[in-house]
Design goal:
heterodimer, A: 442 residues, twelve-stranded mixed beta sheet, ten-stranded mixed beta sheet, 10 helices, globular, B: alpha/beta, Rossmann fold, four-stranded antiparallel beta sheet, 39% helix, 28% strand
């Protein structure tokens, strides 16, 4: 058979250029993982709308922008504070264009055995944990599904260099939130950034993590991958806040491995980017686990916001609750694709998926696709999708109490999304995100 | 205060009000009674400014202004309040935030300074107690998951907070048990004053045992066919609407 000749992606030259640097970063096994990732991506390349998983997401900028590999940039504390959620008292690691920036991070004394580190330090502090989990969570190989597509995860691995590592040992609860913030600054030329996060909560550990992705200026492509491992009975609240510049392309992956009795509370806020995509993927690999996936996206102008979620119920007696909401104005285009797989062994699964869209303009569009594949016979799985305008009866009620029409409309739009952010337990994070939501809608 | 003259209205080509006349002065309590489908709730909705109805003839004057020209929010700001028959649930908006926003808009319209959160809390304190509202209801989303009685008490609570000139109660008694009925009536009575008027719309006489009207009007077939004092309500309770309907048929 003749080999299929493929045009190489814009990332091939990046890989060649960065190779000498990557080779000397981290342990040896990592370099072979990078090589594998690179070849896996190059075999398929930048997706087109003919690829099922990217059907509604034109990614032409990735080939047209003449992306350069990310370069270093310096931002001071004030600049960073302006971009991020502001004053949040948290253990903070900041990365600028993918590189750890200690000058805008905090240096905290952490409880024994707890690590919140940039990769460079994590490679040394916990090499075994690192090797055990990196790349093992964010993958759909060996899992159900006919359109599984991990190409951007592979691409991220190919360029894996710096990132954030969080480790919480057994029976330890971290009260202060952990803030991992990724700031992009493409003031010189369009760049490609591949941030990575690995979070490991051992049995009965507890933490609250805020992961922010924000931009200072310019056109850039950021491709962050977060992997989370939850041990038995572990509890994680993870808030993912995306507010990149309005010309950015953000393709994110958030992948979680849950063990028995663990609880995941994931809250996603998608506000920024010209093109934003998130794949939130949960492998429920233990019984009696609880999974909460909440998301709210706001799109205006010509923004494209694409949320894909996937829950694999592999074991019995687990519950998942999913609420994703999308607000679209002007010519914005939204996508929601929610997959739930219930494996043959996963009896007594209780899965509930809700997807709601609010269209504020006749030219806004939302494509929604729930996808439930069930191979067990004693389960409860429901899904509901609604797309609509503001409720007339609610609007009239507010106006009949003296609230002017425009203010009443704004209040209802805000409330629609705010309901999602009520799931955030940390008041300072909730207030900061709701304030940004208010600004975004104004 | 309120003068309704020869009001005709329709919805989807169906004529509902066919020439309503009504005069309400400050300090008075009026009751409009009538069988189902007589147009009672339509009248309430038109007063509050619901867009579904089309006024085809007649006028409504409120405090010297053409009420029908005002937006719903302007009517509220001018001092008209409708207690809804079916209060609307609004997930995501807390009761307190909603009410403070409403009050401050109304105050702004009246040339009064806006209230801060602590001033607002002070303003509503006695009213919360009067309506026997658990404080947890204040921090919950507007009407969401409230029982029928809680919703109606919440309506009268809002009325007490906004201090309108004219209170219109649309079947506030429907779905209330006797205890809730007493709380609601007490709330309404406490608002009675020489400057304020109340219009009670109801199917049953029961509510009028607690909120004593000065005038009772019978609305049938989109027209007020009979008016009188509180004794008219008792008469209707004893004989039902059919007697009046019979009288009308004979007269015709």
């Amino acid at each position: 058979m003749a080999p299929i000749l493929m045009e190489s992606s814009p990332f091939a030259s990046h890989f060649a250029d960065l190779k000498p640097l990557l080779e000397i970063t981290g342990p040896a096994w990592l370099q072979s993982a990078r090589e594998r990732g690179f070849h896996e991506f190059e075999a398929v390349g930048v997706p087109t709308t003919r690829d099922e998983e990217f059907k509604y997401l034109p990614l032409r900028p990735l080939t047209e922008w003449k992306l350069a590999p990310a370069h270093g940039a310096t931002l001071d504390r004030q600049q960073v504070a302006k971009l991020t959620l502001g004053e949040i008292d948290a253990i903070t690691l900041t990365f600028i264009n993918g590189q750890f920036a200690p000058e805008v991070s905090t240096d905290d004394l952490l409880p024994d055995g707890v690590f919140v580190l940039p990769f460079e330090d994590a490679f040394l502090a916990m090499p075994e944990t690192f090797e055990k989990w990196l790349g093992k969570v964010a993958t759909t190989s060996q899992k159900l599904g006919t359109t599984n597509d991990d190409r951007f995860i592979a691409l991220n691995t190919a360029f894996l260099q710096d990132g954030a590592f969080v480790y919480v040992p057994k029976n330890t609860k971290i009260v202060r939130p952990i803030h991992l913030q990724f700031v992009s600054d493409a003031s010189v030329s369009p760049i490609a950034i591949h941030p990575r996060v690995l979070v490991v909560l051992e049995d009965h550990a507890e933490a609250v993590i805020l992961e922010s992705h924000v931009g200072q200026t310019g056109q850039y492509f950021t491709n962050p991958v977060t992997e989370v491992v939850l041990g038995a009975g572990a509890q994680l609240e993870h808030v993912r806040y995306q507010d990149e510049t309005d010309s950015a392309v953000h393709i994110g992956n958030f992948a979680v491995h849950q063990s028995e009795n663990s609880v995941l509370n994931s809250i996603v806020a998608q506000f920024g980017s010209a093109i934003a995509r998130l794949d939130a993927t949960v492998w429920v690999g233990g019984s009696n686990a609880e999974t909460w996936l909440n998301g709210a996206s706001v799109g205006r102008g010509h923004q494209r916001i694409d949320n894909h979620t996937r829950i694999d119920h592999a074991l019995p007696h687990c519950q998942s609750f999913e609420v994703y909401k999308t607000i679209l104005d002007d010519h914005a285009h939204g996508v929601f694709n929610g997959k739930i797989f219930v494996y043959q062994d996963a009896q007594k699964t209780d899965a509930k998926q809700t997807n709601q869209g609010l269209l504020l303009s006749p030219t806004a569009e939302l494509d929604t696709k729930p996808q439930l594949e069930i191979f067990a016979d004693d389960v409860k799985c429901t899904h509901g999708a609604t797309v609509g305008q503001l409720r007339e009866d609610a609007l009239f009620y507010l106006r009949a109490r003296g609230i002017p029409k425009k203010e009443a409309e704004a209040l209802l739009v805000y409330a629609f999304a705010a309901e999602v952010f009520e799931k955030i337990s940390e008041p300072s994070i909730q207030a900061a995100i709701e304030a940004r939501l208010f600004q975004k809608l104004a | 205060m309120l003068t309704i003259t020869n009001l005709h209205a329709k919805i989807d080509e169906k004529s509902i009000l066919k020439g309503v006349n009504l005069q309400i002065n400050p300090g008075e309590v009026h009751a409009i009674m009538g069988p189902n489908g007589s147009g009672k709730s339509t009248l309430a909705s038109i007063l509050a400014g619901k867009a579904d109805y089309e006024v085809t003839e007649g006028t409504v004057e409120f405090e010297g202004q053409d009420l029908l020209e005002l937006d719903p929010e302007e009517r509220a700001a001018e001092g008209l309040f409708l207690a809804f028959q079916y209060p609307v649930e609004i997930p995501g908006v807390t009761n307190t935030y909603f009410l403070r926003t409403a009050l401050n808009n109304v105050r702004k319209h009246r040339g009064l300074p806006e209230l801060t959160m602590s001033e607002f809390t002070k303003h509503i304190k006695s009213k919360v107690e009067m309506m026997e509202l658990p404080s947890s209801l204040l921090s919950r989303s507007v009407n969401e998951g409230f029982s029928g009685g809680e919703k109606k008490r919440n309506e009268i609570f809002q009325m007490a907070v906004l201090e309108p000139k004219l209170c219109v109660l649309d079947e506030t008694d429907s779905g209330l048990d006797i205890d809730a009925l007493k709380v609601v009536s007490h709330g309404v009575n406490s608002l009675r004053s020489p400057e304020r008027a109340v219009l009670v719309i109801t199917h049953y006489q029961r509510l009028l045992d607690y909120i004593r009207p000065d005038f009772v009007h019978v609305l049938i077939g989109g027209k007020i066919v009979k008016s009188g004092g509180p004794e008219l309500a008792l008469e209707l309770e004893a004989n039902g609407y059919s007697l009046i309907e019979g009288e009308l048929a004979v007269a015709a």
